[in-house]
Amino acid sequence: MTKLISILLMLCLTVSCALAGAESEFSQNLEAFIESVDLETKDLLVDLDFPGDYSDYLLQVGKNENGIVAKVYDVGLESDSFALQVDAETAYVSVVPAEITVALKYETLVSYAQSFIKNTLGIPVDLISPEQLMADASVIVSKLAPLAGSAVTMVDVSEIEGGYRVTLNSQVAAQVITGGIDALLGDDEVKGIIDRYASLLATVGVELSSNVLSQAWDGTRDNIAAAISALEASADVMDDGTYQAKATLTKGEDVLNVTSTGSVDLETGAIDTLTEVSKNDEAPVATVKYTAGADGVLYEAKGEGFSLYEKLELAGEELVKFDYVLTEEDTPVIEMHYADGNCTITAPDLNIAVEKTFEDANSLELLLTMKAAGQETIAKLTYTVNENELTYKAETAGQEYIVKVTTTDKGTYANLSEAENLVVVTEELLDSLVSELLEAGSLE
User: Fold this and answer.
1) pTM, rounded to two decimals
2) What is the DSSP-derived secondary structure letter of residue 421?
3) Does 371 have pLDDT greater than 80?
């Protein structure tokens, strides 16, 4: 089963790598096939042909007045095996040999999940319904609006030769920010929102009631105000699209400097920036370089003990090359590279390489080599596509796994909501099944 799952995962991984670049004839034909699938007028037929002890199945999927419908035919047993039906409220599964149909309403599943999380895990999810979250977010935004309006008083703008200078008024900033937090934490409506989620956060060991927050703020307010007051920040923005910005924070004898320089091309939208963080005028301890334009994007960050490099090269809207390298303590953590239809992924105990070996308008062949946990898998993967058929074949260790997808005439499907032996799943039944699964897992 593990090999089967691996083979199916290769379907998604490899075709994504192979089609990441140029818009080839094959990719256009594949896209045309996908767009031609219309379950309103045609059914989709999926033929799973696997070697050895694996069962071969035919899956037919369609859409009718009862919703999304499907039936599974077991080729080995020469009979229907399962039927499925999904509508806006309920999912049905019919086990044909046992002549039993099971119905699960979505509201039952959601209600049980909430009860399980609350009663078993101790997390009161009823506090965080989507409606409540939206209402609370709306209140917080409305409370922050006055603070946002006061933010304009935190900066001074003056004209300089060739542009203008924006300077932070740190004293005003300290008053606006601390005053805004004072107002928020002193607001009864905001306190109610904080306390509503306090019991939820307590389940993960976080004590964050309104009283706790207020006490914590009272103990740090003066220090935060002092830190903001000690911050010096300004930016020169020039008419030609270039800028220079610097922020300096002094704490005792230490001075932290953040500088950023760059440009924005107002016509093309191209961006080029370099940001550096240094201490006491020493060499930078962290740098971030970012450039973006019509030919690609470069992002490079370096700090103490890590570096991240990401680069995309484009030709129009087509991906030409992609590199991603994350390093910690001079040791690569993960690398991903793509060029010319070939891609590699490297991580500890994992190496995946995909090489495009052939392509024309109707077929694509790839060679995949995967090394994981000391085991190596080599597979030849072939995709073929025409007007009404898509085939995926994986050849590995002398065996073939074939998935064929075609469109076919509309089929007939029984309305499972009217099945004679219909079993409606209740919360009690779900609880019994989950309890049995948890008990079986604990015994293992």
Assistant:
1) 0.70
2) S
3) yes
